[in-house]
Amino acid sequence: MTTATTHEERTVTVAGGDVLVRSAGSGDPLVVLHHDIGVHAWTPCFDRLAERFTVYVPDLPGWGASDRPEWARSVRDIAVLAGALLDALGLDRTSVLGFGFGGYVAAEFATVAQARIRRLTLVGAMGVKPDEGEIFDQFLVNHQDYVRQGFASDEAFEEHFGVEVELEQLLAWDLCREMTTRVTWKPYMHNAALPHLLPTVETPTLLVWGSQDRIVPLEAGRMYADCLPNARLEVIEGAGHLVELERPGELAGLVVAHEG
Question: Under a CB-based contact definition with an 8 Å cutoff, are residues 28 and 99 in contact?
């Protein structure tokens, strides 16, 4: 199991609800937007990034320990809340790192507020419908099997969550799935408008995909690269969808190099 290390936690108010924010490190700000399964621990990847940045890892509104905005019904709603979260943190301009669903939120945010993003990194991001293959439908399987799909191997999954997943973790995933259903059900995990809006985003963008991503096909990464005018795609061989857990040092190194 991945265990938490030294970081601070605080609660800020966003659109009338409480949002939990973890933070550590010093330097330029870097806001990390999590997967649809939420944040299960402060990971070695965050520690590595905290050597270079002040890293902020919130539970997005509706996920984890943050209050649920009952009115939110789209990923763009969550992106608007992410902007309000930056206000609550006093961050006028920051770099943003988004994982999977969090990458989708970050991409939506960039299309409406790119001036607030110094540099953008999207890792296995949802949001665009691939021309080949499809985004894995988590609602066809149980919580545990969906997360297993995020790793390149069962051994990698068990390293972080054990052979038998603890009940507390399963319940946490259940709450995350409920919120995910509210904002990504129809259409599932993509916005048909996004490919038309991404060409307006001039923000320097790093795209990172695991070559064995079974959740979001690599084709989606290529589509992001084609749509974004100032982007490059890096493929990590042998990694799955949860790159930050399987290859924390390699991913952190790519982010640091991208930030310059």
Answer: no
Per-residue burial over 224-239, b if 16 or more Cβ lie within 10 Å, else e, is beebbeebebbebeeb
- Roughly what angle, to the nearest 10 degrees, separates helices 167-184 and 75-89? 110
Q: Are 22 and 58 in contact (CB under 8 A)?
A: yes
Residues contacting residue 62 through CB under 8 Å, at least 6 positions apart: 68, 69, 72, 78, 179, 182, 183
As a whole number of Å, the end-to-end CA separation of the chain is 32
Is residue 98 within 8 A of residue 104, CB to CB? The reply is yes
- How far apart are the C-alpha atoms of 146 and 180, rounded to whole Å? 13
The DSSP line for 84-116 is HHHHHHT-SSEEEEEETHHHHHHHHHHHHHGGG
> Angle at the Cα of 255 (from 104 to 98), degrees rounded to 5?
15
* Cα 112 from Cα 115, distance rounded (Å): 9
Separation CA 134–CA 130 (nearest Å): 6
Examine the pLDDT at 56 and tell me if it is beyond 90: yes
- Per-residue model confidence (pLDDT) at position 4: 42
pTM for the structure as a whole: 0.96
